[in-house]
Design goal:
Layout (H helix, E strand, L loop, with lengths): L16 E2 L16 E4 L7 H9 L4 E4 L3 H6 L8 E4 L6 H10 L6 H18 L1 H13 L4 E4 L6 H12 L4 H9 L1 H4 L12 H7 L4 H15 L2 H7 L4 H11 L6
Parallel strand pairs: 2-5, 3-4, 3-5
Antiparallel strand pairs: 1-2
Helix pairs in contact: 4-9, 4-10, 6-7
Keywords: Hydrolase
InterPro entries: Prot-tyrosine_phosphatase-like, Tyr/Ser_Pase_IphP-type, Tyr_Pase_AS
EC number: 3.1.3.48
């Protein structure tokens, strides 16, 4: 049987991809065409929507902030959209540094991104608890996304894969795929140095590692963090039943 494609190659969303096929520590693989991650969905074409309808997509979890989601709203027939807003902070932090007269460098940008990822753990844990509440309801095909599908979505994907006992190197591999897939749809005029933009519009291991290190610092381990957001042993068994193949291989 032919393996499904990971990227759906949609015209209006460059970073729309399937989490299926990844093997966990016990050799069980995530089921294909159940869990998807993406950049925003406001640019989907009618052909794109037909593709998603054909795979039975019925739920969309939107991590974009309130103004982001209002600026690029979307609706898809047969797909229930749920808002799990995490407000973006990087642009505000950059503007504050520029107004203070700071000359931004790529190193500054890395630090800002690491700060953003730590904040996912410190300030936005309820949103990720909501994510898992939706996942635990049923296995109807679902997509979770933000604007670029790389940061808020990237941390969410990492937590899902960790909850299913996927090895950390595989988690990181999936995270870094954004650098191969994501295409910016526009390049607004900005005074921000190109070396800074090159950091902001890509992902680096250091970003995700900052969030996972914060989890371990504050909660002791990813397993303990998952328990604290309502994903204990019983819930993880249900996630495995919903989203993993029945047998290794």
């Amino acid at each position: 049987m032919q393996t499904p494609s990971r990227s759906l190659n949609l015209s209006g969303a460059s970073n729309f991809r399937d989490l299926g096929g990844y093997a966990n520590q016990q050799g069980r693989r995530l089921r294909w065409r159940r869990l998807f991650r993406s950049d925003h969905l406001a640019g989907l074409t009618p052909d794109d929507q037909a593709v998603l309808a054909s795979i039975g997509l019925s739920r969309a979890l939107d991590f974009r902030g309130i103004q982001e989601s209002q600026a690029t709203a979307y609706a898809m027939p047969g797909v229930a959209r749920h808002s799990l807003p995490i407000e973006p902070t990087v642009v505000q932090n950059i503007n504050a540094m520029l107004q203070a007269g700071h000359t931004l460098t790529a190193r500054d940008a890395v630090g800002l991104m690491q700060h953003t990822y730590r904040a996912f753990v410190l300030d936005n844990t309820p949103r990720f608890a909501e994510l898992f509440a939706h996942l635990l309801e049923e296995d109807a095909p679902l997509v979770f996304h933000c604007t670029a599908g790389k940061d808020r979505t990237g941390f969410a994907a990492a937590l899902i894969l960790e909850s299913l006992d996927v090895p950390r190197d595989v988690v990181m591999h999936d995270y870094l795929l954004t650098n191969e897939l994501y295409r910016r749809t526009h390049a607004p005029q900005t005074d921000t140095p190109q070396e800074v933009l090159d950091v902001l519009w890509r992902v680096q291991e250091e970003f995700l590692e900052a969030a996972l290190q914060e989890v371990e610092l504050r909660h002791g381990s990813v397993d303990r963090y998952l328990e604290e957001i309502g994903v204990g042993r019983r819930e993880r068994e249900r996630l495995a039943a919903l989203y993993l193949d029945d047998a290794p291989g």
